Amino acid sequence: MTPKPETTAAKALNSLHGKGGMPLIIAIIAPLLGGVLLVWQAWTLADVLGRAIEMGEPASALLPAIGLILGLLLLRAGLGALGEQAGIAAAEAIKLHLRTTLFSHMLARSPRAAGRAGSGAAASAIVDQVEALDGYFARYLPAALQAALLPLIFGAIILPLDWVAGVLFLVTAPLIPLFMALVGWGAQVATDRQARALSHLSARFSDRLRGLLTLKLFGREDAETAGVVEASEALRRRTLGVLRIAFLSSAVLEFFAALGVAGIALYVGLTFIDFLHLRTSPLTLQLGMFLLLMAPEVYNPLRLLAAHYHDRATAKAGLLEIERQLGALPAAPAPLADIASRPGAAIDLALSNVTLRTPDRLRAVLHDAKLAVSAGQHVALLGPSGSGKSTVLEALVGLRDHEGVLTLDGRPLADWPETELRARTFLLAQKPRLVHASIAHNIGLARPGASRVEIERAADQAAVSGFAAALPDGLDTLIGEDGVGLSGGQAQRVALARLFLRDAGLILLDEPTAHLEASLEDEIMAAIRRYAEGRTLVVATHSLAVASRMDKAWRIAGGTLLETPLPARKRGVA
Ligand code: ADP
Ligand code: MG
After folding, report:
1. Whole domain around residue 12: which residue ranges?
2. Could you tell me how many helices (H) and strands (E) the chain has, helices first?
3. Which residue has the least CA distance to atom 18 on ligand 1?
4. pLDDT at 146
5. Within a domain: 342
6. 75-132 residue pLDDT tens
7. In the prediction, which pLDDT does 506 show?
8. pLDDT lower than 70: segments of the chain
9. Nearest listed ligand to the Cα of residue 430
10. Which ligand has its closest atom nearest to the C-alpha of 360?
């Protein structure tokens, strides 16, 4: 049986407690200490009042006790501030830990995995939903321990002094959590719905932001705005649902707390005017005062808990939502394998009866294809636009599902561990993604720790240095998320430069020289060929000049893959 999602979230929450460290312990202990000091303070205050009123002691005799009260007040305020600060620090530490964990989990996940979260949803999980844990650790957890312990401590102190008041406290206090739990059942459902609405809204919003230019070009602003408005309206309704329940539960609490305080006041008052005779000894003014001062304090921790009760539901809902979006709640950061430091022996590849489909699976791009490329061979993949060249290259490194048998080094693709596959293959995508960073950083991504000299050499080989020299900061020029500021051919070359930092046995290049003039194409292809010596190379291309430099050529036409004679070594376009 699969565990209830509720319990997995609770477990994940518990497993995070340890990450709070010392700050979390301080955040929990400080208010408890403050609670104990409070009893001392109330007792001293009642004592001062009793001595001043009943015994008529002069003010000078009371001064030390008054000083003590002031000291206790200050100490409690200090403890309160310390606890609050520690709570915030603990929550920050835990959120940081969780974000790091989620992020490395996401990076370590195979791009082959089905049902990968969209980038908007993943961003929402890591940014927004993790934030939902804040209240739980900073406020709920300390409040829960106070609510569990302080009323008991207070009751135990009061019981021997006055059994009626003690019993009244010990009976009414547990009623509050009981009723709140009843209300809380509804709260969890409402909060789950709210968390889902929130992630829907942020996922939608960030995905649309990324496609803003396209939306504008096609006049879709209004329709998309309406969609975002609808999603935020759903979030508003769900939030109000949560608030309604929160108000209801605090009303329940206030009712019982008021009842308890009124009961004590009534009892003290009636005993003083000799109406009630439940005590064997007479009630002193000091004791009566003490009971009255303590009465609201007994319920205060519960009130605090009620104020932060929904934080727990929010945190659990947040974790459930993270789990839903990322497919799992990672327990510990998965170590990121250093994919660049593996040997680059040439890999042979073989396809037999392989069928590849479009991403929507509606149409087969390639039928029952057979292909064999021996280790170290350089192969051109020809075919008109849309014939499936990119599909084949992506399938070769497991980025597409395939039917049939596809082996690399005689091993079916599915048997390759993700990290090994990434380490030993290199794919230059047709539209490579550049990150918002310098050109040098974008190239260096291919091998963490690559030296500046190595990066510069890679930039030379991919003919990046030439155009970079004309940019304001050379290789240190910042480029945008999609290589904004670079032309398509330039962005392609920045991505190609990464190849020269890697040590892959199978190199797949998707139209590496598209949009390039012939002389540059020659220069780059020469560098690629040199580098790919002793490695297997597959280049999808339209250029006959590029194809003519290879050992063999294959052509996709009408869904079949056929070997085709190498084009003669002269210029032309396939
Ligand atoms: P090539 O690289 O040879 O130009 P591709 O491999 O990119 O061709 O595309 C192969 C076919 O898959 C094309 O006919 C294209 O229309 C189709 N295709 C690509 N992406 C999708 C998608 N998301 N949904 C449906 N069909 C797609
Ligand atoms: Mg293509």
Report:
1. 5-208+235-326
2. 19, 12
3. 358
4. 92
5. no
6. 999 999 999 999 999 999 999 988 888 887 777 665 655 455 566 677 777 888 889 8
7. 94
8. 1-6, 108-120, 184, 327-344, 481-484, 569-574
9. 2
10. 1
Q: Is 357 in the pocket of ligand 1 (CB under 6 A)?
A: no
Strand 349-357 relative to strand 403-408, pairing: antiparallel
Domain boundary among 277, 295, 326: 326
**CATH code where residue 255 lies:** 1.20.1560.10
Pair (265, 394) in one structural domain: no
Ligand 1 centroid from CA 539, angstroms: 17
Closest-CA residue, ligand 1 atom 22, reads 359
Minimal-distance CA residue to ligand 1 atom 7? 390
Q: 297, 42 in Cβ contact below 8 A?
A: yes
Report the CATH number at residue 467.
3.40.50.300
* Packed helices 59-108 and 141-161: angle between N→C axes, nearest 10 degrees: 150
Tokens of 203: 């996922």
Cα of 255 from ligand 1 centre, angstroms: 66
Q: Is the CB of 20 under 6 A from ligand 1?
A: no
Q: Do the Cβ atoms of 438 and 473 come closer than 8 Å?
A: yes
Task: Determine whether the shortest distance from the Cβ of 358 to ligand 1 is under 6 A.
Answer: yes
In our burial notation (b when 16+ CB lie closer than 10 A, e otherwise), range 511-548 reads bbbbebeeebbbbbbebbeebbeebbbbbbbbbbbbbb
Of the residues 381, 391, 427, which should be mutated to test ligand 1's pocket, given the most ligand atoms within 8 Å of the CB?
391
Q: Is the CB of 385 under 6 A from ligand 1?
A: yes
CB of 139 within 8 A of CB of 308?
A: yes
Least Cα distance to 372 among 488, 536, 491, 237 occurs for: 536
Half-sphere exposure of 459 (CA within 13 A, CB side): 24
For residue 384 and ligand 1, the question of a CB distance below 6 A is answered with no
Burial class (CB in 10 A: 0-12, 13-18, 19+), 176: buried
> For ligand 1, is residue 391 a contact (CB within 6 Å)?
yes
Within-domain flag for 218: no
Q: Is 332 helix (H, G, I), strand (E, B) or coil?
A: coil
Ligand 2 centroid distance, CA of 168 (Å) = 78
Ligand nearest to the CA of 359: 1
In a domain, 338, yes or no: no
- Whether 413 and 465 map to the same domain: the answer is yes
Asked whether residue 258 is domain-assigned, the answer is yes
- 392 and 291 in a common domain: no
Ligand 1 and 359: CB distance under 6 A: yes
Whether residues 135 and 86 share a domain: the answer is: yes
- What is the distance between the alpha carbons of residues 263 and 257, in angstroms, rounded to a whole number? 10
pLDDT score of 117: 57
CA atoms within 13 A on the CB side of 189: 6
Domain tally, the chain: 2
Structure tokens at 205: 């919003």
The string of DSSP codes covering 525-539 is: HHHHHHHTTTSEEEE
Same domain for 143 and 264, yes or no, is yes
Q: How far is the CA of 363 from the centre of ligand 1 (A)?
A: 10
